[in-house]
Amino acid sequence: MKRLSKNVIVLGFVSLLNDIASEMIYPLLPIFITKVLGLSALTLGGIEGVAESSASLLKILGGYLSDRFRRRKIIALIGYSISAISKPLLGLAETGSSVMFLRLIDKAGKGIRTSPRDALIADSTEPSLYGKAFGFHRSMDTLGAILGPAIAFVLLPKINFNYRTLFILTAIPGAFAVMILAFHVREVISLKPAEKPTWKSIKGLPRTLKLFLVITLIFSLGNSSNTFLLLRAQEIGAPSAILPLLWVFVNVCYTFSAYYGGVLSDRLGRINMIFIGFLIYSLTYAGLAFAENTSYAWLLFGLYGIYLGITDGVERAFIADMTPEHIRGTAYGIYHTLTGIALLPASLLTGFLWDKYGSPLALSICAGLSLISAGLLLTLIPSKSKA
User: What does the buried/exposed string (b/e) look like for 67-84 if buried means 16 or more CB atoms within 10 Å of the residue's CB?
Assistant: First the structure.
């Protein structure tokens, strides 16, 4: 059996540690901003909205620079270092502007590192193992999203529920992530003559990849914020106390399905797995639209975790299949930026429909866009690209 490269395994642990640090903070950030600092919910929304938007826009820049200078590792290292420094500094923040600045810096680090890291995973992997490699990485990343809140839950009583102290402690996993990346990941330099990315080469991306990006954008317009899923669960009777557990369940299902979804895509084809994922997404949203009691929530949230697992890494593997090495970072940047920017109109549309016509219609529209995207995958992507 072919094994994953050392780079891929180490990058998985880097993401694990970084996500532990991030998720130690994320569930507590709304309480810190509104209760500790005494700021409004509107301020909270503005801080996170600006931060997320900045990350999306920087993903193209990070990918392009990694192609331009043929250095993936150093750019990813800069991104991880920026985030590792900014997270613990939140423990010293006293004003809304300082929190916004630090969240902006944290998300900027994420934007800079994401595309070069994905390109480095592809560069370090045999094409026949792309699915397995990205599946492993997504599993490790999501495991961090499970461990982070669990560590925070254990630590908070021991530090008298001092959020500032907890934020400062995120320096530990963040520092380990940076050191492991710096000393145990090697740069991959192609033996081919160096090619610089140009507008002509980017414009000349394979037609199949362009079609895939358009279909992904259509799907993303129906892929609104996950908070709507939690809101719907509450509508059908889920107590507030179990909402965090529902989300942990999503991440558990995501963690276990991501690796095997990637492995299956190496055998069955990327597009086939993404098609199945889009169908599961549609089933999940349609099910939540018409669910009448909490007993359905666990099943549907589990399905949502499986959808994430069998599509997230596989989509990245498909981009690696389709993209020439010298513009791979830029291609990942375009992909991440399109899906990131689409989150805003998707969430606004879902919120409008939710308020105006009710949650069943809003969620049904999301399910319908997913079905349309699944159909477009089968009809527009050439059959040779599905294998």
Answer: bbebbbbebbbbbbbbbb
Each residue of 173-213: pLDDT tens digit?
999 999 999 999 999 876 455 566 655 666 767 888 999 99
**Among 80, 63, 73, which Cα is nearest to 6's?**
73
Domains contained in the chain, CATH given: 1-187 (1.20.1250.20), 199-387 (1.20.1250.20)
Q: Are 314 and 264 contacting, i.e. CB atoms less than 8 angstroms apart? A: no
Non-local (6+) Cβ contacts of 31 within 8 A are 163
Q: What are phi and psi of 325, to 5 degrees?
A: -60, -40
Region of 210 please: left (phi>0), alpha (psi -120 to 50) or beta.
Answer: alpha
Which residue matches tokens 């150093």?
74
Q: Do 159 and 37 form a contact (C-beta atoms < 8 A)?
A: no
Any residues with CB less than 8 A from the CB of 282 and at least 6 apart, and which? 367, 368, 370, 371, 374
CB neighbours of residue 62 within 10 Å: 32
Token pair of 99 as six digits: 């929190």
Backbone angles phi, psi at 78, to 5 degrees: -60, -45
C-alpha 255/C-alpha 23 separation (Å) is: 15
Q: Mind listing the pLDDT tens digit for each residue in 20-44? A: 999 888 777 777 877 788 877 667 6
C-alpha span between 384 and 185 (Å, rounded): 34
Do you know the residue count of the chain? 387
Q: Give me Rg for the CA atoms of the chain.
A: 20
Q: Which residues contact 76 (CB under 8 A, 6 or more apart)?
A: 62, 66, 112, 113, 116, 117, 120, 181
